[in-house]
Structure formats: C-alpha cells, structure tokens
Amino acid sequence: MIRMAEIPKEEYLEKCTTACAGCTSSLTLRYVLKAAGPDTVLVVPACCTSILQGTYPNTAFSVPVYNIAFAAAAACASGMSEAFSSIGKKTNVIVYAGDGGTVDIGIQALSGALERGTDFLYICYDNEAYGNTGMQRSGATPMGARTTTTPGGKTDAKKDIDRIVAAHNIPYQATATPAYPKDLFDKVKTALATPGPSFIHVLAPCPPGWRIASDMSVAVGKMAVKTGSWVLWERKYGELSISAPSKGAMKKRAPLREYLSLQGRFKGISESVVNELEQSIEKNLARLAKEEAGEC
Amino acid sequence: MLTVATGNKAVAAAVKAAKPAVVAAYPITPQTEIVEQIAEYVTSGEMDARYIPVESEHSAMTACIGASITGVRSFTATSSHGLLYMHEMLHWAAGARLPIVMANVNRALGPGWNVWAEHSDAFSQRDTGWIQIFVGTVQEAYDTTLMAFRIAEDQGVLLPVMVNLDGFTLSHIMQSLETLDPGDYIPPLVLPHRIDTENPAGYGTLTGPADYFKFRWGMEKAMRTAPSVIRDAEEEFFRRFGRRYGPVEEYLCEDADVVVVALGTLGVEAEVAVDLLRKEGIKAGSMRIRWFRPFPDLDVAGRDLVVLDRGYSFGFGGVLSDSIRSRYPSASIYSVVAGLGGQEVTYDDIADFIRDRKMGEEYWFGVDA
After folding, report:
1. According to CATH, what is the number of the domain B2-180+208-241?
2. How far lies B5's CA from each of B2, B240, B245, in Å?
3. Optimal mutation site among A85, A86, A108, interface B, most CBs of chain B within 10 A
C-alpha cells in the first residue's frame, strides 16, 4: 500500500469548491484525481459534484469536466472513451456519479457500458440519498435511515449495486471510503491500470444528510468499516480480496450501535430494524469471506 | 457508381462516405437497416469507425455527445419512440453545440403500436435546436446525409442535423442511387470547444441566467446563420456532383393558383397529382419543403395553399399548417390532415384535396365526410 508521503502533492481540486464543510465526496475526488493525474476527463451526471464545481465561467477543478444529464453518465463515457481511443489518446475517462445517478436513474446506462467492455472507470460516491436536492431517499439509502421522503425511516433495504455490477464480470471492482485514503488511492491506480471497465463504490458520509458534525465525517467513515457496515474489498478478474482495514474489523467488529448513534438520521431507529441491519452485515461478511476463500 | 438501393441503404452508404469516427447503434423499425448496414461496413473493414452497440436510444445520443465533444465526427439513426426516448439528449446535443448527424426514419407513435410513416416523431423534437431536413427520394437521402455533416460542422453553425425520411415509403423502397466520393466536400471537423486535457475547462457547468441566456441566443444566431450555410452546401453540391437542391422543391409553381405544400414522400406524390390537374386545366403546383428547421421562406402570396399535415398538435392544428400560418398570417390555407400512422395517400387523393379544397378549413382525410 502506498504511504501518505508518496501520494502526489499536486491538487486538481482547488480550494474554492462550494462543497459543504466536511464533504467526503469532494475529499474522495481529491484522492481520485491525485491518483489519476492531469490526463483525465471527468464525466459528471447530476449530483452534488455538478454543483460544487462552482458557477460558469469559473471551475474549481483543474481537469476537464463534462457535465451530462442524470441518466447518461456511463453512455457519455462510452462515446468519449471510444473517441479518444480512435484518435490514439490514452486519456483516463472517469465517471464520478452519486448513488442516485448510479443505482437508480443511471443503472441502465451503467449496465450497458459495463457489458460492452467500455474502457473507463466508474466511481459511485455513495452518500446514501439524493444529497443535491436535499436528502431524499435513493435505492442506496439504508433501512432505517430518515430522509426527507422517508421521515419515519426507510422501510426497504439498501440496493446491493455491487452484486449487480459483479454480475457483469468486469475486470476490476472495488469498494472504498476516503476515511482510508491510501486504500482508495491504490484502488483508483489499479482500476486505471486495468484495461476495460472498472467500478469503485465509495461510501461518502455526508454531514448535513447524515446529521453529523462536519468534523466527524471521516470518523463516521472509519466507524462504518469497523462495524462491518461498509466492507472494503477489491475483485481483480474475479478474484476477491478483502482489504486490510476490513480484515482487521472482521476479527473484532465494533458494535453496530456505535456507528448508528453517531448519526442523526438513525435517531429513534427501532430495535427490530437494527437487528435487520445487523443480520444483513453478518450475511454480507459471511458471503465475502466465503468468496475470498474460494468456497463460492 | 450507379446502383439501386433503399432509402435506409442510401443513408448508410452516405455515412460510410462521410467517415465518422464513432457510430452509436440501437435497433428500431423502420430504421434498423441503417445500423445493420453500417455494422456490415465496419465488420468488413470498408468503414473505419468505432461502432457502439448501446442499450437504448437515450444512450445512443449520449454516446454521440461523448464522442463529439472530443472533436470527432459521430452519427446515429433512430425512429419514432427511439427519437422520443432521446429527447432530453437532443436538447443536450444542440445546447452543447455538437455537430452530430442523425437519420430519423419517420414513424408514428404509440399507442397503438404502429410502425408506419408519420411526422409526429420529428415534429415533437421541433424546439430542441436541431436543424431538421426532410427528404423525398433515395438519392436525396444519400445526398442530404452528406450535406448534413458539412452543414452541422460549419463554424458558423455547429448545431446537430436530423435527416428525416419517411418510414417504409422511403426507407424500404428501392430507387436508383448514384454514390460518389465526396473528396473534400466535407472538410475535416474542427470543434473549437473540444475537450483538451492540456487546456482543461468545465463543460455544462452550473450557469446563471445572464450567461445561460447568451448561450441560448448563440443557438438562435447559429440557426439564423444556417440558411446561408445550407444554401452554400447545396450550391457546392450541385457544382461538384451535378444535383441541385434547395430549401423548397418547387414544381410548376410559377403560374400556379393552388399549391400543395408537403414534407417528404407526400410531396413527391403531390407532383404526380399536379400533373393530373394540369391536364384538367387546373393551374396547380407543388412545394415540397426540405428544411423544416430553420423554416424556409415560401412564396405564398395570391395563391391557395393545400397543406398536407402528417402530424398534429392536439388542441391546435396541423403542425406544418401552423408553421406556415404563423410565418405568413395572411396565407390562404386548407389544412389536410392525412397519412397519419402510414395511411395511404395516393396522387388521386391529393388531386381530390385540391379539387374539393375549402380554404380556411381543416379536413381529416378518411375521417371527415
């Protein structure tokens, strides 16, 4: 794993974004771009990142950003990737999309681009709701979380986009969170070095949406991993390996309540919903451990 | 080379000659033959293009957008519901000033399912900022597709172009076709705002009202520049290849008291009706409008216009009639709503519309007594 001192000093996200304080989606992007370098184009569908770039004619990003309609990011990247390749350019094409734009409205274009073997990296930064429009539930909102459209807590489970993506048998797939930046950096590097489609699913704690203090978003991300709510892993050409931070967490998991109680969105969550969340964590961990051991 | 081809095959052959770098493809009747033929060209090596078999028309247009912004030429083809599914991205392509060329094989919209010719699909995209041209013959489909790239990519235009051809009555009928080597008729594409990682910029960034307004005005300025660019493309085409086209294909209009106005194959059929009527001593003529957007100037003064409307704005009127009426408020118009859902309209029927015309009124052929 890369050492922090080795992560490039160059910044591609200037200190003038309009992101909320403590935004981990912009923190994620900062590391993504450090890993990708300047010969990179970002394709961004409607999401928080469409807004935090700043207002025309200014931009806070120092790589080209192509903003595109909500459902369209992966298809745009398909066209762009083929066009660059047709003129002999090796420019990185990276989709940077929120969870709504990935697991809900953008899933068809994503599936198509993956199936076609598009040479690109798709990053879903998942703050588990439609953040840009003021925190409405998305397919990625976890059960029990309160959003403006689930004021009593979401009654349905979080859609498992990773298993949907896995069904496309792409060369490289991973999960990450900027609370573990070295892990995130390495995974972006690996993804970009792998020909064909790559997908990285990043948990991005959101201070206003999750009702946490702005200086707590990294701590909450760490706690997501320590409780097993978020598992860090990568799958290269079908071979799964659980990443070091989650390996440690799986040996001795922190109690789920410690993760939930940090966040206002889970305030008043019932014991039965906590149990359901706990069961889904156990099931997920067991499935991943089995896959890593080659037992499924 | 002289050959025989369907309208669809003619479009595909023109696309091959125009050498796009990227073609996005999704099947839909009656367009499918275009993307099938291009797949054959690419597979056989006759055409050096990236062929992206997308999972929807929304993605077809989006893939063209993603390709076009890198500065390369791109093409796709669709029909009917496919065009409607692209609607959001049609606005995006025009707003982003991308010179994408698309063939739209005109077809009716459901429900009920109907695969035959109608113009409602194209009309419903009227205000997206696309240049729209309707063609009437196989040769014209070929020639206009070549022109479309030159027009779209002109530095004063930089707007996408939709070439419309009627489903089945043109897409699937065989006529003679002369293919050609366009040479430098279509100059290399230079997209001034192409993505360049050496010179990074934000595209489609959040934009306040004042700047947004300027971008919209820029689109309209381009639309107002387009007529001279299209005329130039048509003139240069005639000079090089010997076939002349204009904004309106006029037939025996000079001394006409009554003129049929139509788009696409109905306009070709109307010319036969005019011949019949002339034999009866009726001074009839025909105007087949090629450019729907930007809308051309028409000579409407002092004559009756029998407008064939193959698409309707419910609660208002025939779409072509309305365009003419709003441009020329004093025009004398008999609006004939005909040919919806592929309804057969023969030259005899058109001759009847002219003989029985009731100026200022609207007539639904096959419905009204």
Report:
1. 3.40.50.970
2. 10, 22, 20
3. A86
Whole-number mean pLDDT of chain A?
Answer: 97
Q: If phi over 0 gives left and psi between -120 and 50 gives alpha, with beta otherwise, what is residue A54? A: left
Q: Do B54 and A75 touch (CB under 8 A)?
A: yes
Nearest C-alpha neighbor of B166 from the set B119, B231, B230, B109? B119
A87 touches chain B (CB under 8 A): yes
* Residue-range domain boundaries for chain B: 2-180+208-241, 249-364
Write out chain B residues lying below 8 Å of A66, CB-based: 66, 69, 195, 203-204
Question: How many whole angstroms separate alpha carbon A152 and alpha carbon B112?
Answer: 42
With CB atoms and an 8 Å threshold, state whether B204 touches A38: no
Whole-number pLDDT of residue B225: 98
Comparing CA positions, the residue from B55, B44, B43, B48 lying closest to residue B15 is B48
| Predicted ipTM of the assembly | 0.97
3-class SS of residue B312: strand
Please report residues of A whose CB lies closer than 8 A to that of B203: 64-67
In which residue ranges of chain B is pLDDT below 70? 369
Cis peptide, bond prior to residue A57, ω within 30 of zero: yes
Is residue A152 a contact partner of residue A146, using CB atoms and an 8 Å limit? yes
Interface list for B 136-195 with A (CB within 8 A): 195
Number of cross-chain residue pairs from A and B with Cβ atoms under 8 Å apart: 159
Given CB atoms, is B207 within the 8 Å cutoff of chain A? yes
Is residue A249 predicted with pLDDT exceeding 70?
Answer: yes
Residues 6+ apart with CB under 8 A from A79: B22, B24, B52, B62, B63, B64, B65, B66, B67, B68, B74
- B87, B88, B198, B203, best to mutate vs chain A, most A CBs in 10 Å: B203
Statement: B249-364 belongs to CATH 3.40.50.920: yes
Q: Which domains does chain A have, with CATH numbers?
A: 6-292 (3.40.50.970)
- Kindly give, in sequence order, each residue whose CB lies less than 8 Å from that of residue A287, ignoring residues fewer than 6 positions away: A296
- Fold matches, B2-180+208-241 and B249-364: yes
Task: Please answer yes or no on whether B202 and A53 come within 8 Å at the CB atom.
Answer: yes
